[in-house]
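Hi P.,

Sorry for the delay on this. The queue was packed all week, but I finally got your sequence through. Input first:
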Amino acid sequence: MPPNIRSGGRSFKVGLQKPSSTKNNYGEAVVGWSTDSKPWVKITPMMDLTRGGEYFYAKQLHSNISHKVEMRYQTLSTGNAITPECRFRWGAKYLKILSITNESEMDRKLVFRCAEDQ
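Then the structure:
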């Protein structure tokens, strides 16, 4: 982790979950979720981003984007990159990852566009 990075408003601790697969008594694959880590993040509802056109730009990419999530750069515990197959658990809500941006390609900050998942 890069030293001396300020929190930048990261005030929510969320569960970063990845899909996991197990087998039931019949040998069938059962897909579930396992929590990989619990990072501190900044969560902004997209309706709060109407300034500067970011909300409208996001709606053009994915019409169901509901939240922007920012966190320090990290990988999964396996060393693999975080992918859109992962999701965030935020209290009783689940945020499905639609897109990921490695801001400035400097491996310091990740920005996710997410949709609330039921």
